[in-house]
Amino acid sequence: MELSGDKIVTQFLKDEGVEYVFGYPGGAVLHIYDALFKQDAVKHILVRHEQGATHAADGYARSTGKPGVVLVTSGPGATNAVTGIATAYLDSIPLVVLTGQVTSAFIGSDAFQEVDSVGITRPCVKHNFLVKDVKDLAETLKKAFHVATTGRPGPVVVDIPKDVTDPNIKIPYEYPANIKLRSYNPVVEVQSSQVDQAVDALLSAKRPMIYSGGGSVLSNASQELRAFTRQLGYPITQTLMGLGAFPDPDPLNVGMLGMHGTYEANMAMHECDVLFAVGARFDDRVTGDVKQFCPNAKIIHVDIDPSSVSKNVQVDIPLLGDVKQVLSELSKAITASKRKPDEKALKNWWDQIKDWTSKDCLRYDRNSALIKPQFVVEKLYEVTGGDAFVTSDVGQHQMFAAQFYKFNEPRRWINSGGLGTMGFGLPAAIGTQLGNPNDTVACITGEASIQMCLQELSTALQYSTPIKVVNLNNRYMGMVRQWQEFFYESRYSHSYIDALPDFMKLAEAYGHVGMRIEKPEDVEGALKEAFAMKDRLVFMDFITDQKENVYPMIAAGKGHHEMHERELA
Amino acid sequence: MQHIISLLMENESGALSRVAGLFSARGYNIESLTVAPTEDETLSRMTIVTSGSNEIIEQINKQLNKLVDVVKLVDITANGEHIERELMLIKVQADTSEKREEVKRQADIFHGQILDVTDTTYIIELTGEGSKLDAFIKAMDATDILETVRSGSTGITRGESSLRV
Questions:
Q1: B90 — phi, psi (to 5°)?
Q2: Fewest CB atoms less than 10 Å from the CB: which of A55, A209, A499, B154?
Q3: A122/B21 CB distance under 8 A
Q4: Which one of A131, A307, A313 makes the best mutation probe of the B interface by having the most chain B beta carbons within 10 Å?
Q5: Is the CB of residue A75 less than 8 Å from the CB of residue A113?
Q6: For residue B142, what are the contacts with CB-CB under 8 A and spacing of at least 6?
Q7: Residues of A in contact with B165 (CB under 8 A)
Q8: Which residues of A touch B63 (CB under 8 A)?
Q9: Inter-chain CB proximity B68 and A147 less than 8 Å
């Protein structure tokens, strides 16, 4: 078939099985938008700002496991998308971002809406391409999807000059089903000698600990992780990015670790003698002071990306490969070894952990006359049956969501863990809802974060995504305020937002349902009422305790055993 | 410790900026970097001289390998015997007969070639390991050096082992 570049883009996306493109038109992509107009296989979601497009595509990708696709114009279209691209990069989310570029002949001339998109995005993409000839277009698009979705996933940008999509230049098109990149071979075979060493270390452990991260989610290794953990009966902690791969309510789960992790998880990390890290990257919010990190542990690390191994913390036994495959091989090897974990040592270890757990580190004042944010998340969990997709923005509400919504399944918890991007939650919820039309989607946010991509309320109306926005409104940038209270002698420098909008009226102005909830006794009823409105976006503005803090907390640069805990009267 | 990393990359625009960007973004040292096409015109060969602890060098190798355009990479300092060569052109003041004799004598000792002669200057070409070029510069009277230009090091492993696709 003979096609012009504009139609090659749309035909390729159809052939690639792309369901949604999140985008915003502009001069350099008008040929492509014209081609989109003439077909109906690929649905376009018109956002209100390009950052929203990338976050929506990202939410779609995280919740479905399929790559998210973005289409934006050159110049400001591309630069507005950068925050979302970097967000996906830090969390290893597969995105393909098509950016329009000025006509080839104008590149480098400071043309209207020209920016060096390849140069600007280079440090925050897995790879990027500039298409110089329409003959390379289909193959480059295929390469982009291949690179984005294989190995350690990540965003890929394809910059397309306007002349490459000229509707008057037709060339033969065939879907490039198989492409090969000689310089890119992300699949690694698991080394059997390493497997044996790991099994020996695991079964010799007296105080073992499993530390699972986002890689277990990305690799769809939830079943294997459950089988492996239960086979050994070892305690497991999950990172902010890993929540749900192992079910939170399971007795083997000791909760999240790290800066706002549970006391038991962090203490068990500090005291363990064998650490099994899987699909996790030893981020500073997880490790605290690396010099004091797991001081007595032999460390086994499963990861698909060799550069993650021994990057922040020296590893004793690296196991390179896909998490799903490595875990399944380890399970087999453990069975084949006919060895069992040291039952007596394990019992002592669990007794110790239960002792730590008995501190009830997540306790908060349940008799408060003010709405506690934790209480709202707990009630949200109950009202949704623990079954919702939950997106969040960044800050205290994100931590409360991670601590109090007990995720049973992977891909249900959608948040910007690595980059920490405020404004992520609402557009991510739109993408999540589109990818999971029959499921419940809640966006836990705060009055500061929500205003960073608030305009996407309009997108949510246009595409009828019945998201439930849970706005934990404490009139402060809560996490900034908390740090200022702890580390800056309560000098609340510019963390108080005066002149907030009336969110209830604002939601109504955007065509949605708004609610304001001011008393603890109204929380449950409001949530039930909101979630009963199946086909409406409901914006619930919870007026919460202004001074609530997230506990426990490890201050930056401290060790796992140096947690701040809540003092309760 | 100083390491020489040789790599083959797809000969595409922007390839150099990916490597340079990686070093600046992650705060690694670049002492020198050279790049040129190979006999296979689809490939460029790059030689990077860098330094750091073993952990940092390991990360540099891994991060370079992770770049999608990098086809193959070898740390030739870590991989047995190798040959290192750098080219230097150095222009020196040679305006008295004593100076002309002294510069010529030093150039001979270092197996340098005098490429250009004027009434007042010599240009000497010198190849060798970086340390030899350093030694030559030291041997010159600093006030006589008008200009130096060094290519940066390139290197190759000895024997059968080769960096090729």
A1: -135, 130
A2: A499
A3: yes
A4: A307
A5: yes
A6: none
A7: 182
A8: 307
A9: yes
Place of tokens 């190995």: A151
Interface mutation vs chain A, best among B61, B65, B66, most A CBs within 10 Å: B66
Residue with the two structure tokens 């038991």: A264
Is A113 catalytic? The answer is yes
| C-alpha count within 13 angstroms, C-beta hemisphere, residue A106 | 16
* Active-site residue (options: A269, A422, A479, A540): A479
Token duo for residue B58: 């390991």
Total beta-carbon pairs less than 8 A apart between chain A and chain B: 40
In B96-149, alpha helices (H): 97-109, 130-139
Does A162 qualify as catalytic in the annotation?
Answer: yes
- Reduced to 3 states (helix: H, G, I; strand: E, B; else coil), residue A516 is strand
Q: How far apart are CA A164 and CA A160, in angstroms?
A: 7
B110 half-sphere exposure, CB direction, 13 A CA radius? 28
Chain B interface includes A306 (CB < 8 A): yes
Catalytic-residue membership of A378: no
CA distances (Å), A327 to each of A72, A324, A559, B73, in order? 39, 5, 29, 30
Chain B residues inside the 8 Å CB shell of A130: 13-14
A310: nearest CB among B21, B55, B71: B55
| Structure token pair of residue A256 | 């999240």
3-state secondary structure of A139: helix
Inter-chain touch B68–A118, beta carbons under 8 Å:
no
CA distance B155 to B84: 4
Q: Which residues contact A251 (CB under 8 A, 6 or more apart)?
A: none
The tens place of each residue's pLDDT in chain A, 569 residues long, gives: 999 999 999 999 999 999 999 999 999 999 999 999 999 999 999 999 999 999 999 999 999 999 999 999 999 999 999 999 999 999 999 999 999 999 999 999 999 999 999 999 999 999 999 999 999 999 999 999 999 999 999 999 999 999 999 999 999 999 999 998 999 988 778 888 899 999 999 999 999 999 999 999 999 999 999 999 999 999 999 999 999 999 999 999 999 999 999 999 999 999 999 999 999 999 999 999 999 999 999 999 999 999 999 999 999 999 999 999 999 999 999 999 999 999 999 999 999 999 999 999 999 999 999 999 999 999 999 999 999 999 999 999 999 999 999 999 999 999 999 999 999 999 999 999 999 999 999 999 999 999 999 999 999 999 999 999 999 999 999 999 999 999 999 999 999 988 999 999 999 999 999 999 999 999 999 999 999 999 999 999 999 999 999 999 998 889 998 888 887 65
Tokens of B153: 């090091």
Question: What is the identity of the amino acid at A400?
Answer: F
DSSP readout, B39-81? SSTTEEEEEEEEE--HHHHHHHHHHHHHSTTEEEEEETTTSS-
Nearest of A448, A497, A447, A439 to residue A468 by alpha carbon: A439
Say whether B59 and A307 touch across the interface (CB within 8 A).
Answer: yes
For chain B, the helix, strand and coil percentages under 3-state DSSP, each to the nearest 5: 30, 40, 30
**Token couple for A85:** 């691209």
> Residue B9: closest CA among chain A residues belongs to which residue?
A183
- Across the interface, do B21 and A305 touch by the CB < 8 Å criterion? no
The three-state DSSP-derived secondary structure of A455-476 is: CHHHHHHHCCCCCEEEEEECCE
Q: Cβ–Cβ of B65/A307 closer than 8 Å? A: yes
Shortest Cα distance, chain B CAs vs residue A184, angstroms: 6
